[in-house]
Design a protein that fits this description.
Length: about 80
């Protein structure tokens, strides 16, 4: 599974990155977690609100920081 956190590097973006890593660890899931801060990459994907979380290329959260438990549900496909 590939998880990408897109954001400019703001506090919310860093918190989402930390929450995603904690969720992956708690869920015991194998995942590649990537932080994308390059503005041209973010714009090229049509992101309107950051932070944004992508799971295997699909945007699953935009413009807010989900809780660790919410991310676990997303990872498990609930």
């Amino acid at each position: 599974m590939k998880l990408e956190i897109l954001g400019s590097g703001c506090t919310k973006c860093k918190r989402m990155y930390d929450n995603v890593n904690e969720a992956v660890k708690k869920a015991g899931i194998q995942a590649e977690v990537i932080k994308v801060e390059d503005l041209s990459e973010i714009v090229s994907r049509g992101i309107l609100m950051t932070p944004s979380l992508f799971k295997d290329g699909e945007e699953v959260v935009a413009g807010r920081v989900p809780t660790v438990n919410e991310i676990i549900e997303i990872l498990k496909g609930a």
